[in-house]
Amino acid sequence: MAENKLEATVRSDFGKGYARRARAAGRIPAVIYGGKDKKTTHVSLPAHETFLIVKDNANALVELDIDGTEQLALVKDIQRHPVRWDILHLDLLAVTRDEKVNVEVPLEVEGEPAPGLTHVQETFELPVIAPAIAIPEYLVVNIEGLEADVTVRAEDIKLPEGVELDIEPDAEILTVREPEEVDIPEPEAGEESEGEAEGESEGEAEGESEE
């Protein structure tokens, strides 16, 4: 957890004006909610350090130093700028080390199905219940050598110790299939495609200009 430690400063200012000033100063507005006392605390976090922690982990667990008081918190929502993708605001859930939490963990497909086949993925995240201090960053869906019409279900995915499904076991994750053939109509004999006609015209024009 040392690498996920952040210094949080309690704030009493709110609104778009404050948020702009905070981001200009290298801070990110955030709110911490939940915990045993169900208290909501508004804080600001260092922007660069926060970005490094959450950029590859949607369920990052951070150890906050809130004006000298330590608090574990789970990232629950990240608001980003639609163009620059900068972090604009964070929602954090206060947790304890012995607590289990409901999270959605990304799925990564590993391996290749039998030759000539492909797969269609129905979901890209798996809802699970996991220890707050041991949330997997991702779960593996292995399709190595699978034949056509084989469906991988939630219950087929190997879960780490202490992690359990928070979805019906027979929920479909992906299906192995034969690739769909796409019929591309051929132009009738004697007809030129629009692209070919344009290409010839451009070629003739270029030839004239070179002379």
TrEMBL record:
Q: Locate the Large ribosomal subunit protein bL25 L25 domain: which residues? A: 6-92
Report the GO molecular function annotations: 5S rRNA binding; structural constituent of ribosome
* SUPFAM superfamilies, A to Z: Ribosomal protein L25-like (SSF50715)
| Domain of life of the organism encoding this protein | Bacteria
According to the entry, every stretch annotated as the Large ribosomal subunit protein bL25 beta domain falls at: 100-179
Its cellular-component GO annotations read: cytosolic large ribosomal subunit
Alphabetical GO biological process terms: translation
Query: Tell me, what does this protein do in biology?
Result: This is one of the proteins that binds to the 5S RNA in the ribosome where it forms part of the central protuberance.
- Protein name per Swiss-Prot or TrEMBL: Large ribosomal subunit protein bL25
Q: Which organism is it from?
A: Winkia neuii BV029A5
- State which gene encodes it: rplY
